[in-house]
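G.,

No rush on this.
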Amino acid sequence: MRQIDIIKMYAAKKCLVIDDFPEMRGFIRQAVMVFGADSVDTAANGEEALKQCERNDYDIIFADYNLGDASKNGQQILEELRYKNALKNTSLYIMITAEATRDMVFSALEYQPDGYITKPFTQNALRSRLDRIMLEKESIREINQATDNEQYGKGIQLCIKQLGEGSKYKSLLNRKLAGLYVSTQRYSDACVLYKQVIAERPIEWATIGLGKVLLLQGELDSAEVIFRKLIADNCNCMEVYDCLAEILQQKEKNQEALEVVEQALDISPLTILRQQSYADLSERCGDMDKAVKAHRSVVKLSPHSCYEEPENYLGYARSISSQMEKTGTHDKKQLDEATTTLKKLGRRYPNDSQVALQAILVETQVYASSSQREKAQQTMDKADSLYQKIVFDPGQQASPELMLEVAKSMLALGENDQAQGILKEIATLSACDARMAEKLDMLSDEPISKAGKSKAIKLNKEGKILFDAKNYKQAADFFSRGLDIFPNNIALNINMVFALIKDRGGNGLDSEAENFCRSSLKKIDHIPEDHRLFGHYQKLKNKISNL
């Protein structure tokens, strides 16, 4: 392409330069104008940049990664633009940074900017890099415009046409075409194309794409093989780890999924969604030390993130409470950490009455876990008063999340019957989705959801088969894994204790197994005398008490 044509391309572009240093903003602005651009706006921080993006459709955005502690960084700006679907497919987003730490580089690249330039750089270096990126983007401009307008069929036809004409951007067009096939759920066509590309040359993006399509089609084993090989080959795309973790969760291999997410975080720890996933998996696996660590990272990454929400702070304080409850130990540092987090939540959301109430309810759980029964009851009384106002206010409606928090606080105070009643009430609400049903099942004595009931029956049945075959250790491990899913399930707790005792035979329980048994029986000590398993519970309780 002639230089005059490239200058004309720049002249048609509306640009935005985001940098907290005036000198760098001026340098990039002046350079881009020299290249031919007529319209170049600037912003000194993330908030100002996002406001500019709300008012204008930019064709090229240059964003420094580090914009100061008081501002969103360049990654978070890109994250929010994608979250709001405010960045056109035709636009370029160029990340600029003076930093080159591994954490920052991987974190920035995860959101797939169109280009990445490290400071310092000259005007000529910027021109050379930008020309190449822009020419490549211009080659599929019509395809991207069709995608922006949700004219996916048109985009597919344009891709096929350009490929037929022998475009030098064959790889880019194949990648775009495969993505459009996936967007239109033409998974078979996408698979065929990915395999054709891989047959010519094993390109990483095509292999990842094939794995993702197989995952979407439910071919978990085939997808798992692909993602495990990519990781073994040191693939630097973090999405590979996320996909493998998703497969393992679908296979109910949560511990393996946790280890995979842990690997990804060792490489790229600054992604809030992955930290949230790590926290959730840690809790499902019963590893509260890892859960607390992950929740702490989520809170640290929350300010300036579009994924900041009250649950980030509530989850952190709640995890500390669960950690204290599980270990039976607590110290002032843990208590201060939890209460400080809840105060921070109040400052972040000062005008939300339901969030304020949730904070008080979690505080109740924290005090209960730290053996401060009197303080726990005082905060619960305060919370109950506020909750009743919401319940009887025609203008307000208690959310399922708020009701769940009430139930958790009641359980922390030993008010099991009232808590179980609230859990059953939540299950009847139209707003109770599959994720909420899963949370209800985790807290309930018996699963409430249809899926939960089916899973619990299956777990107990398969565990009892092992038990009846006198494979007591395997049975105990199986029941223990079931308790990761249904920690308060009466039958699973009783069967697990039975299996542990049988496994030890006449040798007695070691201290770890004994503590595990005591903890399990304590979780179900509210079992009513008319329950079908009460006799078994009483027998086990007496046996453990005599150790």
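When you get to it, here's the other one too:
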Amino acid sequence: MHELDLGRLEESVAKRISKLQYGDAMVRIKSFVEQVINDPESVAAVFASRELDALCSRLASVYYGHRREPGSEGRGTVILASELVRAGGHVELIKDYLALGLFESPVRVALSDLFNRMDRSTIEEWESLLGCEVFIAEDAGLDGKLDALDAQISEWNPSTILTLAHNQDVVCVVAAHFPGATRRYYIHHGDHHLSLGVTCEAFEHVDLHNMSYELCKHEIGVQHQHYWPLTAVRPSRIKTEFLERGALTTASCGRMSKFEAGTYAFCYERAVALMLKATRGYHVHIGELTADFMQKIHAELDAENVSHDRFIHVEWVPSLCQALIEHAVDVYVASFPIGGGKALIEALSIGLPVVTHASYRSRYHSSFDLTYPESFVWSGYEELVEIFGRWNEALVKEQAALALQYFERYYSKEAFLKAFADGRNADADVPPLHLYHGNRLQTYLDIRRMREQVLGPLESENKRILTEWANLHAAYEEHSATILRQQLDIERLSNEKNTLAMKLLEQQAAFQQARDEELARSWKSKAKKLLYVMHANKKS
């Protein structure tokens, strides 16, 4: 589907649902969502669609309308997810929910494996890590995945379903409508992009931080809203020693996609180099980075005469809290342009000062609203340099105390349990948003630059084609003129040839006539001579 026409999508999906072609219907919905979320202009701008959610609910209604409801009362909990990855924030959420022990046992995990990239041989490893049974829908097609999930969920017959699916996972959203469940919680964790299921009325909607909570309550208008704050419930040490390396050590964590600038005016590579130049310390990056991205970082370090060994790259850690302490980190620097919430909260949980970036595009790009009011927030490179030129041991300890205090108030296990118990009346548990000013001009310039990057090569190719066409046309015109001249010359020569031929014929006719006349005269003379001779002979 190349054209994003919502009306046409609704019509085509409804047609396929009526024919019970569930797989084709889900493919169309998934493809539509992916085209939206893969467009950079939609990030932190498009979050939900009632039209798309209505299609999912309609599909679920027809699908489950052909299936018998479980005969016995449900028991236990199923956590629905798209996949499990070791560096996934949703995996950390699942770990937290399992550790809290709030949901009816047995708790099991069911995966749609939407992208068909789960390694089946890792099931036992995941079961050991999570401490529960894990099921993977191994069918390649979406209809097969839905059938597999439905069969497994029916066998388990849970009373509670928690959905932590990827944004475009229509299979999980439909499967979460399982009619035997009495409580269906939709965990709104893919909150930078358009997500399926946000407005489905069959779900209890759960937001994880203040930005999403306020957005969904006041702008999107979701029903049955709950607030379960991001937390870090597993035991961890509190950071007590600072500047252990003799200089400030900073750290960032997250998927590489959260650090890729694209057309954004500020880039992580440049920021890291400026921070290290200002602190003369170290920066630890936790998360996978490609070789190309590392080269960009090294190039920026070289530009600021910063040694490469002051940038420490750690691809993965089993526990971020523990890693931050083990690597002697003093200040946590939130990812940007896209902020990461779970990692930021884990940094706060060990009493680590945090520095965040206020995105000029949207507050939903950032994570500064999640932090304590006294934390440092930067908007441009100059502010960043000024902030990291100020840190000393006294400031670090002061900020660390504020960080831990804020965590205990809003993100601790106790805070989570209170918000969970408050159900749909959790307004008082939500941290207030901070003051925010965006920059629409810069956002427009980014969009314009992105269009130029996309359209530039197309325009260059168009110019090349037009130039080539013009050259061909000019050559054609030149050859046409030559051909016309040649045609005229041929016509002239043909006319001259015809004229000469006519003259030749005329000359041949005149010559023949003269010859005939000469011949005639010759015979007359000969006849006269003969008659004369004959007459003379008679006389003699």
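The mean pLDDT is 91. The first helix runs from residue 6 to 18.

Enjoy the weekend,
O.
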